Amino acid sequence: MNENIKVLAPAILTLEDKDYSLPTYIGVEGEKAIDITKLRSQTGYVTLDDGYGNTGACESAITYIDGEKGILRYRGYPIEELAAHSRFVEVAYLLLNGDLPNSDQLKHFSTHLNQSSIIHEDMHHFFSGFPRGSHPMGILATMVASLSTFYPIPEELDEATETQIVANLVSQVRTIAAFSYKKSIGEPLVYPSIKYKYTSNFLNMMFASPVRDYQLDPDIVDAIDMFLILHADHEQNCSTSSVRTAGSSLANVYAVITAGIAALWGPRHGGANQEVIKMLEQIHAEGGDGTEFINQAKDKDSGRRLMGFGHRVYKNFDPRAQVLKQHCDKLLNKPGVNDPLLDIARRLEEIALKDDYFISRKLYPNVDFYSGLILRAAGIPTNMFTVLFAIGRMPGWLAHWREMVHGDQVTIYRPRQIYMGETLRHYQDITQRT
Ligand code: ACO
Predict the structure, then answer these.
(1) I want to staple 368 with a disulfide (CB 3.0 to 4.6 A). Which of 208, 273, 311, 427 is the partner?
(2) Of 311, 318, 327, 400, catalytic
(3) d(CA 178, CA 390)
(4) Residue 357 pLDDT > 80, yes or no?
(5) pLDDT tens digits, residue range 261-281?
(6) What is the pLDDT of residues 316-345, one digit of tens each?
């Protein structure tokens, strides 16, 4: 147990007329927890917590969220301060190492990322093997998993090798992402270049071509860098929990990160920003003002949800959405940029924030509501949105993996269940079955 955790008076649980004493703790930000690690062995009971909404699966010192108050901090620093003053590479360093770097450390980290950006030349053949139109998330997951075959991990992982693997993943995810886009549009791959910084390098690999230089627009570079900062970590979300689950088996880190990418792909997690744009395009095509869509989202039988609204943890506002909304307004108000979807998004937000269905369920715009519009304004195609999220989340996933494997002990993640299937029955020969 972490030495900063304070022990409170034990909780008393009465089961079948017997009292059990359960240890209770309070974390550094006042989160209270009941320790049930011995519950089953002492009482024969397990807890039932579908979706783990009330389960603290680990102790962590990386990110703090207070969903009720709309607080998000990386290593203690408020997201608003990082968004205002920092860059993605610095935030990645912070998440991975625990403190903000001094200028030498930042320079060294940046150079290391830059030098690690090229993927093994033989991996390029893989890109030609994917069918045209393959979803870039499928390509990303495959390529990250295959890094393990090109850069095998030694049985005894020393610090220098681990640092190199982490740099590879943070840097190469961006190269693989850009290559998967180039593959999907049938253009030649553009290699990373030492002359660009992290985000500019990515945009150049995405949009330059042998017949076309790409003019970096500082507003777009800033907006994408901001997007990456805001997505860099979010404590025990679905993909990070998947990383920790896979990591707890001591699988190699490339496989572990692939588990995170797979979980991120879903429309209720990282795929939501893509779904937001689809929703806005549909409303635009139908010519409505969004009221009809909102009515459908309120009707459970329709199977629709207002994408970009609601969050498992934030029940007041999503601080990331507030930062992004400002950037969205700035980017989309630039001369020459005119996206009719922004007006639809604003209208949907206005209607939903006055509607009792959304108010009573505490459903507010989440980070995805505006991020899709920013990515669109930057020229990122919709099917790359979740890939951009994965680039941003990479330092967070790696920080959690590191925290876990370097902890006191790695306990394999293995939840229990309440079995509700058939009770014992015996095998019948096929001729006797009805
Ligand atoms: N539109 C309409 N109704 C909604 C929405 C929505 N976007 N989100 C939740 N609800 C309703 C549910 O139907 C439910 O109603 P009920 O109480 O009458 O049954 C209630 O609000 C609670 O919903 P849950 O699904 O239990 O809430 P939960 O906290 O588990 O889910 C989630 C959070 C998955 C994000 C959900 O709000 C959702 O599906 N939103 C749309 C998808 C989205 O934007 N995802 C991105 C999340 S942010 C991220 O991953 C970076």
Answers:
(1) 273
(2) 311
(3) 12
(4) yes
(5) 999 999 888 888 888 999 999
(6) 889 999 899 888 888 888 877 778 898 899
How far apart CA 396 and CA 92 sit, in angstroms, is 8
311 CA to centre of ligand 1 in angstroms: 6
Residue having the nearest C-alpha atom to atom 30 of ligand 1: 312
Could you give the C-alpha distances from 388 to 64, 84, 272, 297, in angstroms and in order?
A: 23, 20, 12, 27
- Annotation marks residue 368 as catalytic: yes
Q: Name which residue sits closest to atom 25 of ligand 1, judged by CA.
A: 312
Q: Where are the alpha helices (DSSP H) in 98-217?
A: 103-115, 124-129, 136-150, 159-185, 198-207
Q: Rg (Cα) of the chain, in Å, rounded?
A: 24
Beta strand 18-26 pairing with 6-15: antiparallel
309 C-beta closer than 6 A to ligand 1: yes
Please indicate whether residue 2 or residue 410 has the higher confidence score (pLDDT): 410
Q: Read off the tokens for 243.
A: 């990383």
Residue of 361, 370, 375, 385 to mutate, ligand 1, most atoms within 8 A of C-beta? 361
What is residue 134's predicted lDDT score, i.e. its pLDDT? Answer: 87
Q: Domain spanning 86-265+396-405: which CATH class is it, in words?
A: mainly alpha
Looking at residue 306, its pLDDT comes to: 93
Q: Are 185 and 379 in contact (CB under 8 A)?
A: no
What is the strand order of the sheet 18-26 is part of?
A: 6-15, 18-26, 32-34
Q: What is the pLDDT of residues 200-250, one digit of tens each?
A: 999 999 999 989 888 999 999 999 999 999 999 999 999 999 999 999 999
Domain 272-377: give its CATH superfamily: Cytochrome P450-Terp, domain 2 (1.10.230.10)
Q: What is the pLDDT of residue 1?
A: 64
Class of domain 6-66: mainly beta
